[in-house]
Structure formats: C-alpha cells, structure tokens
Amino acid sequence: MKRIVVLGSTGSVGRQTLDIVRQHPESLRVVGLAAGRNVELLAEQLAEFRPQAFAVADAAAGDRLLARFPQWRQHDAGPGTDGLCAVARTPADVVVNALLGYAGLRPTLAALEVGTDLALANKESLVVAGELVRRAADTSGARLLPVDSEHNAIFQCLRAGRQEEVRRLILTASGGPFRTCTSAALATVTPADALRHPTWSMGPKITIDSATLLNKGFEVIEAHWLFGVDFDRIDILVHPQSIVHSLVEFVDGSVMAQLGPPDMRLPIWNALHDPARLPASFARLDLTSVGTLRFEALDRQRFPCVGLAIEAGRRGGVCPAVLNAANEVAVAAFLEERVHFVDIPAILATALEDPECDRPATAALDLEAIAAADTRARDAARRFIAARCTPGARA
Q1: Is residue 388's pLDDT more than 80?
Q2: Which residues contact 329 (CB under 8 A, 6 or more apart)?
Q3: How far is the C-alpha of 203 from the C-alpha of 38, rounded, in Å?
Q4: pTM tops 0.85, yes or no
Q5: For residue 367, what are the domain limits?
C-alpha cells in the first residue's frame, strides 16, 4: 500500500491521478489533498478519499468549504502556500505535485526536504528553480519522478544504458494546434483556436503554452535538471501523432524510444510505482491502427518562444523565473483577449531585459532572489501589455 499526496487534485493531472487510485484501492491510498479554489470538487474528493490533511490555496474558498463541511476543520492545513507546504510534508511515500505554475515551487521543496519521493507534474518548479530542486533532492535522498509524458519517456529509456553512454535526449512535440499555420495566420488566431489541442486534453494555461511551444522550451530546461544533460545535447523533434513520447540516443548510435497512446495516466502510473513496472488497465497501443509515424523539424522562426526558453535556461540564474512569470501574465492576458497570440513572445523578450538576467549566474540561487525576479517580471509584462497592446484586442 503506497500512501500518496496529490497537490492540485482538482486539475487535469490531479483528477487522473485520483482516477488511478480509485481503480486500485488495494495498492494506493490518499493521505493528503490540496487544491487552488475549486472547493466544490475538492469537497467530493475529501468525502471519497478521506485524507489526513488537505489545503485550499485560496483562503476565501477554503472558508466556504469549512462553512459547509465543518467536520473537515481538524484536517485543514491552512490557506495559501503555507497550507500547501504543510500538506506536502504529510508522511507519505509519494507526493504528486500537479499544481499550476509558480505556486508549485515551495510545495515541491517542502516535499523533497522531508525526503518524500516527488512525482513532478509542476514543470515550473524545475524551470524557475532547477538548481534548488536538484539540491533539495540530492540532500534528502528523495527521488524526482517525472510525470510529464516526455520526461517520463526519457526516464524509462535511460534504463537502457549508463549516464556516460548517452549522446543526446530527443523531446518530441506534437506541434500544437498551429503546427501548419503560416506566420501571417498566427497573427489572427483566437484563444478558442489555441485551446483546440490536436492530441492532448489539458488545462487552458498549459494548452496555450503548447500552442506557443513555450511548453517545449520549458521541457528542455526540465530535462537539463532532471537528467544532468547539457543544453547542447537536448533536441526537439515534431511528432504530430504524440505516439513516440521521447527518445534517447546513445553513443553507439542506438536510439531508444518510449511509445504509447496520448494518455497521461500511463506516466502517472509509472511514476507512482517506480521502480516496479506493474500491469495496468489502460488502453494498449495498436501500431497497426496508427500506421505511419511522422517526424518533422521544429520551425523556431514561427515559434520563437522555444528559443527564448532555451536562451533563458542557458543564461541560468533568475532568467528562467523571469520568463515563467512573464509568460503567466501573457497567457492570462491572451485568454482574456487583451493581447494577440503573436504578442506573447514579445512580452517574454521584454521581460528578459531584466538587468539581473545579464549578471553572471555564479552565486547560488535562493528563494528570495527568485521571488523578487518573479515580481519584477510580472510588473514588466503588465507594463508592456498596458503600453503596447490594445485593450479588447479581439473585441
């Protein structure tokens, strides 16, 4: 019986994780849950799984839940980041961090610092503070178990050889909804267009990141910290069908790939049970129905966010935190139709002009420097939007 904590339990990955627990009550037990503000769904989850501790990041939403269900008050870890961190420290075998955005960083560190293995779906933790996350895991001995399908695929492929035998990592990308769009066409796409991902069903923020392909640039940064591979040895390959989830090339020319249907439950299952590989009840891959697998080069001119992310990763220091913060503001503005899709890379590039990004990344990072950079970048993005982007861009 594995005890698990699910942070972000009401989001897409969190719900799929609980579906797996629901199907396998003999081997998985929920001991902690945390959500942002969807207390209606969280209340249902609390009643079903009866965890030892829970938290609601939004204080007002948490108050509403406890007003309706006072019997849960003794299990409430408190609001905000402190509450999320308290749940992350609940004695458990695995913490699944499926929180959205920068808010997932401190709970990531909280789980690692007490030595709990971390199944990480919150990519921003590694993007903005990979150095801190890696250090916390190495110090406590906790394992980082990737839940992203691409990194979980690499995690599996790396079992075929030793670290020194790896030539490069190859992350696959579906290409998103605008894979075949011209640059001119991208100037007129709407949020509804961007939210129609061709192969994956995800939340709105990560779906927009997949449309700009910034998500893939973030994954390069993640792979660098997860697997200790230089940026020069991490490539991206467009694969529209999302059947090959990523590949590893070894020094002898052998290439190992992990294939499967585009279903997040498989990498979640793998992360929850590693190092064992257990039978699962998910849909199996039928290659005869897939037929031909296609691969294409990534057009970085049409999707400049990829290059911005890799540049930020190479520069290190607070640069990735700056990029992530500006992107959270830019994506929210796009979803609210206050900016155009093609404004997003310009907003990110402006934020990366932060003077701290030009300083050599020699000193060890700390949370205070990251938090300050996050605040500056959000302010810079909002100023850019106010000065350069037309309110009601799609009105």
Answers
A1: no
A2: 347, 377, 378, 381, 382, 385
A3: 14
A4: yes
A5: 316-388
